[in-house]
Predict the 3D structure of the following.
Amino acid sequence: MDSALEQALLQEPCGDSRKNELGCNGGEASLQRIEQLFKHYKDECDDAILEDGMEKFCNDLQVDPTEFKVLVLAWKFQAATMCKFTRAEFVEGCKAIQADSIEGIRARFSSILNEAKSEEKFKDLYRFTFQFGLDCEEGQRSLHREIAVALWRLVFTQNVPPILEPWLNFLTENPSGIKGISRDTWNMFLNFTQVIGPDLSNYSEDEAWPSLFDTFVEWEMERRKKEEDANCSTCPHTDGLCPSE
Amino acid sequence: MFPTGLSSPNPPAQEVRQAADGNTSKKRKLNNTEKDDFDPISSPKTSSSCSSSSSSSTSNHIQKRLRFEDSLDFIGLDVKMAEESSSQQSRSKNLFMSTVAGGHHANGLTKTSTASSFANSKPGSAKKLVIKNLKDKPKLPDNYTDETWQKLKEAVEAIQNSTSIKYNLEELYQAVENLCSYKISANLYKQLRQVCEDHIKAQIHQFREESLDSVLFLKKIDKCWQDHCRQMIMIRSIFLFLDRTYVLQNSMLPSIWDMGLDLFRTHIISDQKVQNKTIDGILLLIERERSGEAIDRSLLRSLLSMLSDLQIYQDSFEQRFLEETNRLYAAEGQRLMQEREVPEYLHHVNKRLEEEADRVITYLDQSTQKPLIATVEKQLLGEHLTAILQKGLNSLLDENRIQDLSLLYQLFSRVRGGVQALLQHWIEYIKAFGSTIVINPEKDRTMVQELLDFKDKVDHIIDVCFLKNEKFVNAMKEAFETFINKRPNKPAELIAKYVDSKLRAGNKEATDEELEKMLDKIMIIFRFIYGKDVFEAFYKKDLAKRLLVGKSASVDAEKSMLSKLKHECGAAFTSKLEGMFKDMELSKDIMVQFKQYMQNQNMPGNIELTVNILTMGYWPTYVPMEVHLPAEMVKLQEIFKTFYLGKHSGRKLQWQSTLGHCVLKAEFKEGKKELQVSLFQTLVLLMFNEGEEFSLEEIKQATGIEDGELRRTLQSLACGKARVLTKIPKGKDVDDGDKFTCNDDFRHKLFRIKINQIQMKETVEEQASTTERVFQDRQYQIDAAIVRIMKMRKTLSHNLLVSEVYNQLKFPVKPADLKKRIESLIDRDYMERDKENPNQYNYVA
């Protein structure tokens, strides 16, 4: 007990002020309690929390398994795969966020969410998300298109870039018939949201953008032009209404 | 503007033109005699008195003579001269003029040379002689001067009024000389000038009449001018001595002739009304001539040379003339461009240019040529370059109108920017026309022939019409390259097929020489094509067919084509093709050995086997097809296999049943026949040795031929031209349940009959797969190039990588495709995107 306490104190330099926030159960992140927590959700055969345990875990945390919070938590736990926490991931993760109970974890959410807002951390989270989405056991190298769309929507929950919606529409319509999103394309999309303006005017095919972006920009420009034309053709109509008033 | 030698315009310059009609030789002769006359006289003089200035000219002697009046010889000479000239005058005007021409010219020369020779001779020789000869000077009677002047004045007036002169010319000439000798030259000159001025002043009145018709007016002016000239020449002949002594020594004074011009200019032509009327008249005449009327050209010539002589040609005439010309042709160009077709217009322009050039030769001053022609060119051509090209070039080229095109080029090269504009339209025409040949898939059958014809036509036009202008040749090449590659791959494929059609046996259209020429032309077209690998793939496929079926027309032609390809694309390009030829030759050797081997084997049987050993990789890939061969064939195959592998152990033989063909002996009711058929056809036919009737399914079972292939095979045997089988029920297509029997009543006029496989559908598939293979090959090549470059550079920006890859690749790649290959390589961990700079790649070892 002592050693656990010491450890908890060491890991939390500003412990005193936080202690109260950590909750009613005293709040110190003890290894034992983390282990107990893990056991509570652990699969019967495997030494890991699997789908059922995960669902229960999310229920107890009062979050939807498809929520951004879960993604951020998985990121904090450095989970290799979706819907799965190994023992090591869970224990190290809990230690890292200094929580040893459901309430403890719940209490950490707001600060983790804040952390994910910084550009550097978000980049890490963003890149993590791709790996997180891959089915490692099957040796996948690229994300299935539909999963990618969902993950993109999820990862940008806190800060939706204007280009995201058109991009996801493009992927949903999928005119070029692609199946998977490569890691490079995934990673570069973050650059794309940061560098390319909402009007896409500073996009150039000659730069090193993945070719899917070329297709997207062309498709999107075409769509916007059509939309504009459609708007224009309605203009005389509204004009026609004015004199009649 | 005037040639420098004629700075003072004088009659000789003008009259030489007339003399040129036929008297040039005579004139020269006269000049010579004149000189001869001087020479003997001058020589004693030089030897006796002025030895110091030995180089002095004839005129110099005249000068000296002036100082020693007592020397009678000289006077005698001059009289003789005068006589000579006056007698000639009566004989022919032309001759007279030209004599004077010589004299006057000499006079001109004197002016310059005397100045220098005087300075030289004064201190030496002149002094000595003066002392000796000036002792006694005869006195003249007091009234001599006045009387003599009266005589001269009468003579001048007689000339001016065209009446006869009372005195003989010799006497008058002498009188002038005498007067001059007594130092009254200045007075004489002044008096003469006065008489002339009075006369010329009086002339102006006749031009003051308002009512005069312009042509009549011009004629009047011309006559007045001609009279003036004639009179002045005569007057000057009389006063020649004055002209050559006094006037010469006073550089400020104009010669008598020039004085005449001066007076005429001042009193007649400088009169604004007269001048305007003259110029207007001239311009009117020229305008009439331009609109097609015949006019008095000699009148114009005379008047215009008058203006030149009076030195007012440029100021009073040329400027207005050019303005008029500009205005006229600007309007004409505008109008005719609307009204006329381009060839017609060009001919008109050409005609106009010729007319104007003729105008310059006939009556305008030479100096007008440049600005005049430039004006016409500008207004009729320069202003309409684009319009002409847009309106007419395409149809000229379409209709291959060689002469009109030559004219077009010739005219356009006269104008600044003309050739450049033509060049631009030329490029566009080739691109547009070429695209119509290449783009339309319906024209694929004739594409290559049309390309060849088009190239021939274009070459011919460059050679004949555009004078082999290199710019046009280069532009043509670029344009060809552009349009041929507008449609990727197909032209390359069709060129390969075209060559195949020419190299295949049975092509009796061309002799060897013509074939060779045709191949050369094909190579020129081939050169324009980017995707040469597509060509190679199709060429290889066709070459394989030719070689395997033995249908190549001539080995020489094949080899020649191969060497052309090698020359064009390098050895790597043709190495596989050469390998195919090598395989065929090796196979022949092997077959000779195999025959010997078979003889030693003492094998019973009457089947002859020929095998071609094809090295994998050299040849197109064929999908192996397992079929059920008759036992005899299988046995033969085994024997060959043992034989071959015995010689080359470690090799693997794979039999290509699709490529085999056989000759079958058959006996029909009509008689014996030989059937040349494919292996599949053979398998089907052999079945009928065993039975009478088989269904489709039975045949399939027995032969093991793939369904589609079998149906085509049966179709060729039962529904083609030579029907050795009969299908029940009859019909064009082979359907399930159809039955086949042997057609014993088969008839054919030939003994050996070739039954072609039906291949229509196959070629479409083949073509698709060939193209597909080419594209796959290309992907590997792109990947290899990217990895090669990255391995060498380790780190490279996107743009540099792309440009390096383009440098290495020999076929066209779309940038988007290139990007995809890069992405694929990133995905496969051959390279990675730089973590800091997303525009940069790193090689992953």
